[in-house]
Amino acid sequence: MEEIAANELAIEKREQAVLELADFDEVVRVYRPRILRFLLSSLAERDAAEALTQECFLKAWSARHQFRGDSSLSTWLTRIAVNLMRDHLRSRSLRFWQKTRGSALDVMDISDWVPDGRSSPESLAVARQRVASVWRSVENLSAQQRTVFVLRFVEEMELDEIASSIGMNLSTVKSHLYRALAIIRERMGETK
Amino acid sequence: MKFRKDAVPNPEPNASRDELREIAEAVSLYRSAMHHIADREAARPFVADRRPGHTIGFRFLLAPVLTAIVAAGIFVPIYNHLHHHNSRPVVRAAANQLEASATLANVDDTVLMNQIDSQLSEDVPDALRPLADLSDQPTTHNSVSEKKNVTQE
Fold first, then answer.
1. Among A187, A88, A97, A72, which residue's Cα sits nearest to residue A139?
2. In this predicted complex, what is the ipTM?
3. How far is B20 from chain A (nearest CA, A)?
4. How many Å lie between the alpha carbon of B64 and the closest alpha carbon of chain A?
5. Selected residue of A28, A30, A43, A47 to mutate for chain B interface (largest B Cβ count, 10 A)
6. Which of A134, A157, A192, B37 has CB 3.0 to 4.6 Å from A161, enough for a Cys bridge?
Protein backbone atom coordinates (compact mmCIF):
# COMPACT_ATOMS: atom_id res chain seq x y z
CA MET A 1 0.00 0.00 0.00
CA GLU A 2 2.81 2.37 0.97
CA GLU A 3 4.68 1.42 -2.17
CA ILE A 4 1.71 2.35 -4.33
CA ALA A 5 1.38 5.68 -2.53
CA ALA A 6 5.09 6.36 -3.06
CA ASN A 7 4.77 5.53 -6.75
CA GLU A 8 1.77 7.80 -7.09
CA LEU A 9 3.68 10.58 -5.36
CA ALA A 10 6.64 10.11 -7.70
CA ILE A 11 4.38 10.22 -10.74
CA GLU A 12 2.70 13.33 -9.41
CA LYS A 13 6.08 14.99 -8.84
CA ARG A 14 7.21 14.09 -12.31
CA GLU A 15 4.04 15.47 -13.86
CA GLN A 16 4.45 18.64 -11.86
CA ALA A 17 8.10 18.96 -12.95
CA VAL A 18 7.16 18.42 -16.59
CA LEU A 19 4.45 20.99 -16.25
CA GLU A 20 6.81 23.43 -14.59
CA LEU A 21 9.47 22.93 -17.26
CA ALA A 22 6.96 23.19 -20.11
CA ASP A 23 6.92 26.96 -19.79
CA PHE A 24 10.66 27.40 -19.88
CA ASP A 25 10.46 31.16 -20.33
CA GLU A 26 8.75 31.34 -16.98
CA VAL A 27 11.42 29.09 -15.45
CA VAL A 28 14.12 31.45 -16.70
CA ARG A 29 12.23 34.50 -15.49
CA VAL A 30 11.77 33.08 -11.99
CA TYR A 31 15.12 31.37 -11.44
CA ARG A 32 17.59 33.45 -13.45
CA PRO A 33 18.13 36.13 -10.76
CA ARG A 34 18.79 33.46 -8.18
CA ILE A 35 21.31 31.52 -10.30
CA LEU A 36 23.03 34.75 -11.35
CA ARG A 37 23.24 35.87 -7.73
CA PHE A 38 24.77 32.58 -6.65
CA LEU A 39 27.36 32.64 -9.45
CA LEU A 40 28.14 36.30 -8.91
CA SER A 41 28.62 35.79 -5.19
CA SER A 42 30.79 32.73 -5.75
CA LEU A 43 32.93 33.94 -8.66
CA ALA A 44 32.86 37.72 -8.09
CA GLU A 45 33.06 38.18 -11.88
CA ARG A 46 30.23 39.78 -13.77
CA ASP A 47 30.95 38.38 -17.24
CA ALA A 48 31.66 34.85 -16.08
CA ALA A 49 28.53 34.85 -13.90
CA GLU A 50 26.39 36.06 -16.82
CA ALA A 51 27.87 33.56 -19.25
CA LEU A 52 27.53 30.63 -16.86
CA THR A 53 23.95 31.60 -16.02
CA GLN A 54 23.06 31.45 -19.70
CA GLU A 55 24.89 28.16 -20.07
CA CYS A 56 23.07 26.80 -17.04
CA PHE A 57 19.66 27.44 -18.59
CA LEU A 58 20.85 26.11 -21.92
CA LYS A 59 21.92 22.88 -20.26
CA ALA A 60 18.69 22.71 -18.32
CA TRP A 61 16.73 23.10 -21.55
CA SER A 62 18.77 20.37 -23.24
CA ALA A 63 18.38 17.99 -20.30
CA ARG A 64 14.80 18.86 -19.37
CA HIS A 65 13.61 15.35 -20.29
CA GLN A 66 16.00 13.87 -17.74
CA PHE A 67 14.54 15.88 -14.86
CA ARG A 68 12.43 13.45 -12.83
CA GLY A 69 11.31 15.80 -10.13
CA ASP A 70 13.22 13.97 -7.36
CA SER A 71 14.49 17.31 -6.15
CA SER A 72 13.00 20.75 -6.57
CA LEU A 73 13.60 22.63 -9.79
CA SER A 74 15.65 25.17 -7.85
CA THR A 75 17.94 22.45 -6.46
CA TRP A 76 18.34 20.90 -9.91
CA LEU A 77 19.29 24.24 -11.47
CA THR A 78 21.68 25.00 -8.61
CA ARG A 79 23.37 21.66 -9.15
CA ILE A 80 23.91 22.47 -12.84
CA ALA A 81 25.28 25.89 -11.89
CA VAL A 82 27.65 24.38 -9.31
CA ASN A 83 29.00 21.91 -11.87
CA LEU A 84 29.50 24.65 -14.44
CA MET A 85 31.27 26.78 -11.86
CA ARG A 86 33.62 23.92 -10.98
CA ASP A 87 34.51 23.45 -14.65
CA HIS A 88 35.03 27.18 -15.01
CA LEU A 89 37.34 27.39 -11.99
CA ARG A 90 39.30 24.38 -13.22
CA SER A 91 39.78 25.81 -16.70
CA ARG A 92 40.60 29.24 -15.26
CA SER A 93 43.41 27.75 -13.21
CA LEU A 94 44.80 26.16 -16.38
CA ARG A 95 44.50 29.39 -18.39
CA PHE A 96 46.74 31.19 -15.95
CA TRP A 97 48.01 33.75 -18.46
CA GLN A 98 44.56 35.11 -19.20
CA LYS A 99 43.28 38.19 -17.53
CA THR A 100 40.09 36.76 -16.09
CA ARG A 101 39.30 39.41 -13.55
CA GLY A 102 38.54 42.18 -16.00
CA SER A 103 34.92 42.34 -14.93
CA ALA A 104 35.60 41.52 -11.31
CA LEU A 105 33.35 42.89 -8.63
CA ASP A 106 35.22 45.32 -6.46
CA VAL A 107 34.93 45.45 -2.73
CA MET A 108 33.76 49.05 -3.14
CA ASP A 109 30.82 47.82 -5.24
CA ILE A 110 29.73 45.77 -2.30
CA SER A 111 30.49 48.01 0.63
CA ASP A 112 29.12 51.13 -1.04
CA TRP A 113 25.74 49.57 -0.98
CA VAL A 114 24.36 49.54 2.52
CA PRO A 115 20.64 49.95 3.14
CA ASP A 116 19.53 53.36 4.23
CA GLY A 117 18.07 54.00 7.63
CA ARG A 118 21.34 54.13 9.51
CA SER A 119 21.11 56.48 12.42
CA SER A 120 24.42 58.24 11.87
CA PRO A 121 27.28 58.50 9.39
CA GLU A 122 29.46 56.66 11.90
CA SER A 123 27.16 53.64 12.02
CA LEU A 124 26.96 53.72 8.22
CA ALA A 125 30.75 53.66 8.00
CA VAL A 126 30.93 50.80 10.48
CA ALA A 127 28.33 48.85 8.50
CA ARG A 128 30.27 49.39 5.27
CA GLN A 129 33.44 48.24 6.92
CA ARG A 130 31.76 45.08 8.15
CA VAL A 131 30.35 44.23 4.73
CA ALA A 132 33.76 44.79 3.15
CA SER A 133 35.32 42.58 5.78
CA VAL A 134 32.86 39.73 5.10
CA TRP A 135 33.42 40.16 1.37
CA ARG A 136 37.21 39.85 1.71
CA SER A 137 36.85 36.88 4.02
CA VAL A 138 34.51 35.10 1.60
CA GLU A 139 36.92 35.77 -1.27
CA ASN A 140 39.67 34.00 0.63
CA LEU A 141 37.65 30.89 1.47
CA SER A 142 38.26 27.68 -0.43
CA ALA A 143 35.92 27.02 -3.36
CA GLN A 144 33.86 24.46 -1.44
CA GLN A 145 33.63 26.55 1.71
CA ARG A 146 32.58 29.56 -0.34
CA THR A 147 29.92 27.60 -2.22
CA VAL A 148 28.42 26.26 0.99
CA PHE A 149 28.58 29.68 2.66
CA VAL A 150 26.92 31.45 -0.27
CA LEU A 151 24.18 28.84 -0.60
CA ARG A 152 23.44 29.03 3.12
CA PHE A 153 23.75 32.72 3.87
CA VAL A 154 23.05 34.43 0.55
CA GLU A 155 20.58 31.99 -0.97
CA GLU A 156 19.26 30.91 2.45
CA MET A 157 18.99 27.28 1.44
CA GLU A 158 18.49 24.50 3.96
CA LEU A 159 21.50 22.32 4.71
CA ASP A 160 20.01 19.14 3.20
CA GLU A 161 19.10 21.10 0.09
CA ILE A 162 22.70 22.36 -0.13
CA ALA A 163 23.98 18.80 0.28
CA SER A 164 21.75 17.67 -2.56
CA SER A 165 22.79 20.59 -4.78
CA ILE A 166 26.52 20.13 -4.46
CA GLY A 167 26.55 16.35 -4.18
CA MET A 168 27.98 16.14 -0.65
CA ASN A 169 26.68 14.46 2.43
CA LEU A 170 25.16 16.54 5.17
CA SER A 171 28.04 16.19 7.62
CA THR A 172 30.55 17.42 5.02
CA VAL A 173 28.36 20.42 4.31
CA LYS A 174 28.18 21.18 8.02
CA SER A 175 31.92 20.84 8.33
CA HIS A 176 32.58 23.24 5.42
CA LEU A 177 30.10 25.73 6.85
CA TYR A 178 31.63 25.51 10.31
CA ARG A 179 35.12 26.14 8.94
CA ALA A 180 33.93 28.98 6.71
CA LEU A 181 32.26 30.71 9.65
CA ALA A 182 35.32 30.19 11.84
CA ILE A 183 37.55 31.80 9.21
CA ILE A 184 35.17 34.73 8.73
CA ARG A 185 34.90 35.24 12.46
CA GLU A 186 38.66 35.16 12.82
CA ARG A 187 39.25 37.60 9.96
CA MET A 188 36.60 39.97 11.23
CA GLY A 189 38.25 39.87 14.63
CA GLU A 190 41.59 40.75 13.02
CA THR A 191 40.19 43.74 11.15
CA LYS A 192 38.69 45.29 14.26
CA MET B 1 18.25 11.19 30.92
CA LYS B 2 17.45 14.83 31.12
CA PHE B 3 19.79 17.74 31.64
CA ARG B 4 18.70 20.44 33.96
CA LYS B 5 18.51 23.67 32.11
CA ASP B 6 20.31 25.62 34.82
CA ALA B 7 23.05 22.98 35.01
CA VAL B 8 24.19 23.69 31.46
CA PRO B 9 26.86 26.40 31.56
CA ASN B 10 26.45 29.38 29.37
CA PRO B 11 28.51 28.47 26.29
CA GLU B 12 29.19 32.02 25.18
CA PRO B 13 30.19 34.88 27.41
CA ASN B 14 28.69 38.26 26.73
CA ALA B 15 31.65 39.44 24.66
CA SER B 16 31.37 36.43 22.32
CA ARG B 17 27.63 36.90 22.08
CA ASP B 18 28.19 40.48 20.98
CA GLU B 19 30.76 39.32 18.52
CA LEU B 20 28.37 36.74 17.07
CA ARG B 21 25.66 39.34 16.83
CA GLU B 22 28.04 41.61 14.91
CA ILE B 23 28.97 38.77 12.56
CA ALA B 24 25.31 37.92 12.03
CA GLU B 25 24.58 41.54 11.22
CA ALA B 26 27.57 41.77 8.86
CA VAL B 27 26.52 38.59 7.05
CA SER B 28 22.98 39.93 6.78
CA LEU B 29 24.30 43.17 5.27
CA TYR B 30 26.48 41.18 2.90
CA ARG B 31 23.43 39.18 1.78
CA SER B 32 21.47 42.38 1.17
CA ALA B 33 24.38 43.83 -0.81
CA MET B 34 24.70 40.71 -2.95
CA HIS B 35 20.96 40.65 -3.64
CA HIS B 36 21.06 44.28 -4.64
CA ILE B 37 24.06 43.85 -6.94
CA ALA B 38 22.67 40.69 -8.52
CA ASP B 39 19.32 42.40 -9.17
CA ARG B 40 21.15 45.30 -10.79
CA GLU B 41 23.23 42.93 -12.93
CA ALA B 42 20.18 40.89 -13.91
CA ALA B 43 18.44 44.04 -15.12
CA ARG B 44 21.37 44.90 -17.40
CA PRO B 45 21.29 43.53 -20.95
CA PHE B 46 23.83 40.79 -21.34
CA VAL B 47 26.54 41.19 -23.95
CA ALA B 48 28.16 37.88 -24.84
CA ASP B 49 31.70 39.17 -24.88
CA ARG B 50 32.46 42.67 -23.69
CA ARG B 51 36.16 42.31 -24.35
CA PRO B 52 37.55 44.05 -27.41
CA GLY B 53 38.35 41.89 -30.42
CA HIS B 54 42.06 42.58 -30.43
CA THR B 55 42.34 41.07 -26.96
CA ILE B 56 41.01 37.78 -28.28
CA GLY B 57 43.32 37.95 -31.30
CA PHE B 58 46.24 38.76 -29.08
CA ARG B 59 45.32 35.88 -26.83
CA PHE B 60 45.14 33.48 -29.75
CA LEU B 61 48.56 34.71 -30.83
CA LEU B 62 50.04 34.82 -27.37
CA ALA B 63 48.95 31.34 -26.33
CA PRO B 64 50.92 29.43 -29.04
CA VAL B 65 53.93 31.71 -28.59
CA LEU B 66 53.97 31.13 -24.85
CA THR B 67 53.49 27.41 -25.39
CA ALA B 68 56.40 27.35 -27.84
CA ILE B 69 58.62 29.26 -25.43
CA VAL B 70 57.75 26.95 -22.56
CA ALA B 71 58.28 23.88 -24.78
CA ALA B 72 61.63 25.23 -25.96
CA GLY B 73 62.61 25.98 -22.40
CA ILE B 74 61.87 22.38 -21.45
CA PHE B 75 63.06 20.43 -24.48
CA VAL B 76 66.21 22.31 -25.47
CA PRO B 77 68.06 21.65 -22.17
CA ILE B 78 66.90 18.00 -22.28
CA TYR B 79 68.07 17.63 -25.88
CA ASN B 80 71.37 19.30 -25.08
CA HIS B 81 71.86 17.09 -22.07
CA LEU B 82 71.08 13.90 -24.02
CA HIS B 83 73.12 14.98 -27.02
CA HIS B 84 76.06 15.89 -24.83
CA HIS B 85 75.69 12.61 -22.95
CA ASN B 86 75.56 10.51 -26.17
CA SER B 87 78.38 12.34 -27.89
CA ARG B 88 80.76 11.85 -24.97
CA PRO B 89 81.98 8.34 -26.07
CA VAL B 90 82.39 9.57 -29.62
CA VAL B 91 84.44 12.49 -28.43
CA ARG B 92 86.45 10.21 -26.20
CA ALA B 93 87.07 7.78 -29.09
CA ALA B 94 88.09 10.64 -31.32
CA ALA B 95 90.43 11.89 -28.64
CA ASN B 96 91.95 8.41 -28.25
CA GLN B 97 92.36 8.11 -31.99
CA LEU B 98 94.03 11.49 -32.17
CA GLU B 99 96.28 10.54 -29.31
CA ALA B 100 97.20 7.22 -31.00
CA SER B 101 97.90 8.87 -34.30
CA ALA B 102 99.96 11.48 -32.51
CA THR B 103 101.98 8.70 -30.84
CA LEU B 104 102.36 6.93 -34.17
CA ALA B 105 103.42 10.16 -35.79
CA ASN B 106 105.88 10.72 -33.00
CA VAL B 107 107.29 7.21 -33.55
CA ASP B 108 107.47 7.74 -37.29
CA ASP B 109 109.08 11.07 -36.79
CA THR B 110 111.59 9.60 -34.43
CA VAL B 111 112.54 6.88 -36.89
CA LEU B 112 112.79 9.38 -39.69
CA MET B 113 114.83 11.74 -37.60
CA ASN B 114 117.12 8.92 -36.57
CA GLN B 115 117.48 7.87 -40.18
CA ILE B 116 118.26 11.37 -41.28
CA ASP B 117 120.58 11.82 -38.35
CA SER B 118 122.38 8.60 -39.19
CA GLN B 119 122.74 9.58 -42.79
CA LEU B 120 124.02 12.97 -41.87
CA SER B 121 126.35 11.61 -39.29
CA GLU B 122 127.97 9.28 -41.80
CA ASP B 123 131.49 10.22 -42.81
CA VAL B 124 131.12 12.92 -45.29
CA PRO B 125 133.12 12.01 -48.33
CA ASP B 126 136.19 14.04 -48.47
CA ALA B 127 136.46 16.58 -51.20
CA LEU B 128 139.73 15.03 -52.28
CA ARG B 129 138.42 11.51 -52.31
CA PRO B 130 138.10 11.18 -56.07
CA LEU B 131 141.74 12.00 -56.30
CA ALA B 132 142.50 9.58 -53.61
CA ASP B 133 140.68 6.95 -55.57
CA LEU B 134 142.72 7.71 -58.54
CA SER B 135 145.92 7.58 -56.62
CA ASP B 136 144.89 4.27 -55.23
CA GLN B 137 144.77 2.75 -58.69
CA PRO B 138 147.81 0.66 -59.71
CA THR B 139 150.38 2.68 -61.59
CA THR B 140 151.79 -0.17 -63.66
CA HIS B 141 149.32 0.32 -66.41
CA ASN B 142 150.34 3.95 -66.76
CA SER B 143 153.97 3.24 -66.77
CA VAL B 144 153.54 0.60 -69.42
CA SER B 145 151.58 2.89 -71.64
CA GLU B 146 154.11 5.62 -71.11
CA LYS B 147 156.82 3.23 -72.08
CA LYS B 148 154.84 2.32 -75.15
CA ASN B 149 154.60 5.94 -76.12
CA VAL B 150 158.28 6.40 -75.63
CA THR B 151 159.25 3.46 -77.83
CA GLN B 152 156.86 4.54 -80.55
CA GLU B 153 158.54 7.93 -80.63
1. A187
2. 0.82
3. 8
4. 12
5. A47
6. A157
